[in-house]
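Got a spare moment? Tell me how you read both lines of this record:
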Amino acid sequence: MAKKPTTDGAADENADAAPIAADQVPEQAVNEQPLAINAQYTKDLSFEAPGAPAIYGLMQQEAPDISVSVNVNVSPLQERTFEVILEIGAECKVKDQTAFIVELEYAGVFTLAVPEEHVQPILLIECPRLLFPFARNILADVTRDGGFPPLMLGPLDFASMYQAKMQGLESAMAAGADADADT
Protein backbone atom coordinates (compact mmCIF):
# COMPACT_ATOMS: atom_id res chain seq x y z
CA MET A 1 0.00 0.00 0.00
CA ALA A 2 1.50 3.34 -1.02
CA LYS A 3 1.50 6.18 1.45
CA LYS A 4 0.10 9.42 0.10
CA PRO A 5 1.67 12.70 1.24
CA THR A 6 -0.48 15.11 3.21
CA THR A 7 -0.41 18.90 3.08
CA ASP A 8 2.18 19.05 5.86
CA GLY A 9 4.53 16.66 4.01
CA ALA A 10 3.88 13.65 6.28
CA ALA A 11 2.72 10.37 4.82
CA ASP A 12 -0.89 9.37 5.46
CA GLU A 13 -0.99 5.65 6.24
CA ASN A 14 -4.78 5.51 5.98
CA ALA A 15 -4.98 7.28 2.62
CA ASP A 16 -6.21 4.16 0.82
CA ALA A 17 -8.74 3.25 3.53
CA ALA A 18 -12.34 3.57 2.52
CA PRO A 19 -13.96 6.72 3.94
CA ILE A 20 -16.73 6.23 6.50
CA ALA A 21 -20.08 7.06 5.01
CA ALA A 22 -22.23 9.52 6.98
CA ASP A 23 -25.03 6.94 7.27
CA GLN A 24 -22.63 4.51 9.05
CA VAL A 25 -22.03 6.87 12.00
CA PRO A 26 -24.80 6.89 14.61
CA GLU A 27 -26.58 10.25 14.73
CA GLN A 28 -25.98 10.42 18.50
CA ALA A 29 -22.19 10.26 17.96
CA VAL A 30 -22.35 13.07 15.41
CA ASN A 31 -24.42 15.39 17.59
CA GLU A 32 -23.05 14.87 21.12
CA GLN A 33 -20.32 13.26 23.14
CA PRO A 34 -21.23 10.12 25.10
CA LEU A 35 -19.79 11.66 28.30
CA ALA A 36 -19.42 15.37 28.96
CA ILE A 37 -17.88 16.87 32.10
CA ASN A 38 -19.82 20.06 32.77
CA ALA A 39 -18.08 21.02 36.03
CA GLN A 40 -15.94 19.63 38.81
CA TYR A 41 -15.44 21.09 42.25
CA THR A 42 -14.61 20.58 45.90
CA LYS A 43 -17.98 20.09 47.58
CA ASP A 44 -16.68 19.61 51.12
CA LEU A 45 -13.21 19.45 52.67
CA SER A 46 -12.23 18.91 56.30
CA PHE A 47 -8.80 18.52 57.86
CA GLU A 48 -8.06 18.06 61.57
CA ALA A 49 -4.77 17.51 63.37
CA PRO A 50 -5.96 16.94 66.95
CA GLY A 51 -2.62 15.58 68.18
CA ALA A 52 -0.48 18.48 66.91
CA PRO A 53 2.17 19.49 67.82
CA ALA A 54 3.12 16.47 70.00
CA ILE A 55 2.26 14.00 67.22
CA TYR A 56 5.08 15.27 64.97
CA GLY A 57 7.77 13.93 67.32
CA LEU A 58 5.89 10.67 67.79
CA MET A 59 5.71 10.16 64.00
CA GLN A 60 9.52 10.25 63.82
CA GLN A 61 9.70 7.37 66.31
CA GLU A 62 7.04 5.09 64.88
CA ALA A 63 5.42 4.50 61.49
CA PRO A 64 1.88 5.82 61.18
CA ASP A 65 -1.15 3.63 60.51
CA ILE A 66 -3.35 5.14 57.81
CA SER A 67 -6.84 3.90 56.95
CA VAL A 68 -8.64 5.15 53.85
CA SER A 69 -12.29 4.84 52.88
CA VAL A 70 -13.77 5.58 49.47
CA ASN A 71 -17.40 5.95 48.43
CA VAL A 72 -19.19 7.15 45.30
CA ASN A 73 -22.63 8.79 45.37
CA VAL A 74 -24.73 9.83 42.41
CA SER A 75 -27.62 12.30 42.29
CA PRO A 76 -29.69 13.01 39.18
CA LEU A 77 -29.91 16.70 38.27
CA GLN A 78 -31.76 16.62 34.95
CA GLU A 79 -32.83 13.95 32.49
CA ARG A 80 -29.28 12.90 31.44
CA THR A 81 -27.22 15.05 33.83
CA PHE A 82 -25.89 13.75 37.14
CA GLU A 83 -23.77 14.92 40.04
CA VAL A 84 -21.16 12.29 40.96
CA ILE A 85 -19.53 12.73 44.36
CA LEU A 86 -16.27 10.96 45.16
CA GLU A 87 -15.97 10.75 48.96
CA ILE A 88 -12.54 9.96 50.36
CA GLY A 89 -11.74 9.85 54.05
CA ALA A 90 -8.41 9.08 55.68
CA GLU A 91 -7.36 8.75 59.29
CA CYS A 92 -3.74 8.60 60.40
CA LYS A 93 -2.88 7.20 63.84
CA VAL A 94 0.40 6.75 65.66
CA LYS A 95 0.35 4.61 68.82
CA ASP A 96 -3.42 5.01 69.21
CA GLN A 97 -3.16 8.80 68.91
CA THR A 98 -4.82 10.50 65.97
CA ALA A 99 -2.33 12.43 63.87
CA PHE A 100 -4.83 13.70 61.32
CA ILE A 101 -8.27 13.14 59.84
CA VAL A 102 -9.05 14.35 56.34
CA GLU A 103 -12.40 14.09 54.56
CA LEU A 104 -13.00 15.20 50.99
CA GLU A 105 -16.08 15.26 48.80
CA TYR A 106 -14.96 16.01 45.26
CA ALA A 107 -17.79 16.24 42.77
CA GLY A 108 -18.45 16.55 39.09
CA VAL A 109 -21.49 17.26 36.96
CA PHE A 110 -21.69 14.87 34.02
CA THR A 111 -24.04 14.65 31.06
CA LEU A 112 -24.40 11.22 29.47
CA ALA A 113 -25.60 10.37 25.98
CA VAL A 114 -25.40 6.58 26.19
CA PRO A 115 -27.91 3.73 26.17
CA GLU A 116 -29.70 3.28 29.50
CA GLU A 117 -27.93 -0.01 30.32
CA HIS A 118 -24.56 1.81 30.34
CA VAL A 119 -25.57 4.73 32.56
CA GLN A 120 -24.98 3.13 35.97
CA PRO A 121 -21.55 1.62 35.16
CA ILE A 122 -20.37 4.90 33.63
CA LEU A 123 -21.57 6.89 36.64
CA LEU A 124 -19.98 4.53 39.18
CA ILE A 125 -16.79 3.58 37.30
CA GLU A 126 -15.80 6.07 34.62
CA CYS A 127 -16.90 9.32 36.28
CA PRO A 128 -15.09 8.66 39.60
CA ARG A 129 -12.05 7.52 37.60
CA LEU A 130 -12.01 10.94 35.93
CA LEU A 131 -12.43 12.77 39.26
CA PHE A 132 -9.86 10.74 41.20
CA PRO A 133 -6.60 12.44 40.08
CA PHE A 134 -7.92 15.83 41.18
CA ALA A 135 -9.13 14.49 44.53
CA ARG A 136 -5.80 12.71 45.05
CA ASN A 137 -3.93 15.95 44.46
CA ILE A 138 -6.14 17.87 46.92
CA LEU A 139 -5.56 15.25 49.64
CA ALA A 140 -1.80 15.33 49.09
CA ASP A 141 -1.72 19.14 49.28
CA VAL A 142 -3.93 19.36 52.38
CA THR A 143 -1.96 16.78 54.37
CA ARG A 144 1.34 18.37 53.34
CA ASP A 145 0.03 21.84 54.28
CA GLY A 146 -1.05 20.35 57.62
CA GLY A 147 2.58 19.56 58.44
CA PHE A 148 2.57 15.87 57.50
CA PRO A 149 4.07 13.96 54.60
CA PRO A 150 1.69 14.19 51.62
CA LEU A 151 -0.93 11.45 51.53
CA MET A 152 -0.31 9.89 48.11
CA LEU A 153 -3.10 7.47 47.26
CA GLY A 154 -2.40 4.80 44.70
CA PRO A 155 -4.72 4.18 41.77
CA LEU A 156 -8.19 2.92 42.68
CA ASP A 157 -9.98 0.17 40.78
CA PHE A 158 -13.49 1.58 40.49
CA ALA A 159 -14.56 -1.34 38.26
CA SER A 160 -13.79 -3.84 41.05
CA MET A 161 -15.56 -1.62 43.58
CA TYR A 162 -18.62 -1.51 41.29
CA GLN A 163 -18.59 -5.29 40.80
CA ALA A 164 -18.32 -5.89 44.55
CA LYS A 165 -21.23 -3.53 45.17
CA MET A 166 -23.37 -5.30 42.55
CA GLN A 167 -22.51 -8.72 44.01
CA GLY A 168 -23.42 -7.45 47.48
CA LEU A 169 -26.78 -6.21 46.20
CA GLU A 170 -27.45 -9.52 44.44
CA SER A 171 -26.60 -11.43 47.63
CA ALA A 172 -28.86 -9.20 49.70
CA MET A 173 -31.71 -9.67 47.21
CA ALA A 174 -31.18 -13.44 47.20
CA ALA A 175 -31.17 -13.51 51.02
CA GLY A 176 -34.37 -11.44 51.04
CA ALA A 177 -36.00 -13.82 48.56
CA ASP A 178 -34.96 -16.81 50.71
CA ALA A 179 -36.45 -15.18 53.82
CA ASP A 180 -39.72 -14.53 51.97
CA ALA A 181 -39.84 -18.18 50.81
CA ASP A 182 -39.43 -19.41 54.39
CA THR A 183 -42.48 -17.51 55.66
Q: What stands out?
A: Residues 1-30 have pLDDT under 50 and may be disordered.
